[in-house]
Write a structure and sequence with these properties.
It contains 7 helices and 19 strands. It has 331 residues and is of the alpha+beta class. The protein has a 10-stranded antiparallel sheet. A 9-stranded antiparallel sheet has the order 4-3-2-1-6-7-8-9-5, with helices on one face.
């Protein structure tokens, strides 16, 4: 071998050695230092009481939840109240996730673990972002499939995927976070209910009997007989554990869209009005609460009840659509 060729070979060998050394040095730390059982998101554990915003994006829906004076609300739902206990549970779950098993680095295999965000058309892969009180991002990762006792994750700017020990919910369904209970008022607090439909002949009112036990239909003539002595009582339970399917900032319906107005009078003479109306093909309800409607046995899950419109479940529609003839024996 000539000296010239030997020199070229030596230079190539040195260059390859340098490149190999650089490649080794720039490998992510977890390649050599991460051990099974190690906490994944140490910053979440350290700053769990300093977290201000949670963002969940599945490519179809994006939920943003933020904290204000120790109360959580959903920015993507006009600031409606979020259940603090659900937020706390999810943050604790994140802080307790640990590395369990290293999985694939191959991008074409991400979809098998539901880690192919943002290319997942089914919305099963979710990008989770957490910001602190200084609006600094403290972690971002893709959340994939659940497995017994763990979930699959991938840190956003890394190729390596992992199976964790410890599970995580982080639902991208709004109602899993929102305080879906509207109000809860005990039956025995209701004194009178007036149900006013568009057609006057369909309208009626109910008043508690002298014992305060059963609701009786008012002003029946001698030919009008109730189907039973207890037929009207179900109306008294309309306000117990009332929940919604959807919520929006207060809609102001046109008179033509209003279907029914229900006035509730309580034993302390406070009042609550429910207005049921059409919005497109859907039925919604507004509440008008007087300022005195606060007493033992009454729970309002949001303070600003008058600021919202609620879409109720179909079973609640059936109650509000009840007409006088539905309570009476057919002629």
């Amino acid at each position: 071998m000539s000296n010239k060729n030997f020199t070229y070979l030596l230079l190539i060998t040195i260059l390859l050695f340098v490149l190999a050394s650089i490649s080794f040095l720039i490998q992510p730390k977890y390649e050599t230092s991460i051990e099974k059982g190690e906490i994944i998101f140490s910053k979440a554990k350290e700053q769990i009481n300093n977290i201000n915003e949670i963002i969940i994006d599945d490519g179809k829906n994006k939920i943003s939840i933020s904290q204000n004076q120790n109360n959580w609300s959903m920015n993507s739902k006009s600031g409606y109240k979020v259940k603090n206990e659900v937020v706390r549970k999810n943050l604790i779950q994140i802080s307790e996730l640990r590395f369990s098993e290293k999985k694939t680095k191959e991008e074409f295999l991400y979809s098998r673990l539901d880690l192919d965000y943002p290319n997942d058309e089914d919305g099963k892969s979710k990008l989770i972002s957490i910001n602190n009180n200084n609006n600094e991002n403290i972690l971002e990762f893709v959340l994939g499939k659940r497995k017994k006792g763990g979930v699959y994750i991938k840190k956003l700017n890394e190729k390596q995927t992992w199976l964790t020990s410890g599970t995580l919910d982080m639902s991208s369904i709004e109602n899993d976070w929102l305080e879906t209970k509207i109000l809860e008022i005990e039956y025995n607090l209701i004194n009178k209910i007036s149900v006013n439909h568009v057609k006057k002949e369909d309208s009626f009112s109910l008043t508690k009997d002298d014992k305060g036990e059963n609701l009786l239909i008012d002003n029946l003539n001698k030919d009008q007989l109730p189907k039973s002595d207890l037929i009207a009582n179900f109306f008294g339970y309309f306000l117990t554990n009332l929940v919604f399917n959807d919520v929006e900032k207060r809609k102001i319906p046109n008179d033509i869209d209003i279907i029914t107005k229900i006035n509730f009078t309580f034993i302390d003479d406070s009042k609550l009005t429910a207005i049921i109306f059409n919005s497109g093909k859907e039925k919604w309800i507004n509440f008008i609460r007087d300022d005195t409607a606060l007493a033992e046995g009454k729970t309002f899950y949001v303070d600003n009840l008058n600021d919202w419109s609620y879409k109720l479940s179909s079973t609640k529609y059936n109650v509000t659509e009840t007409k006088l003839k539905d309570l009476l024996v057919e002629e």
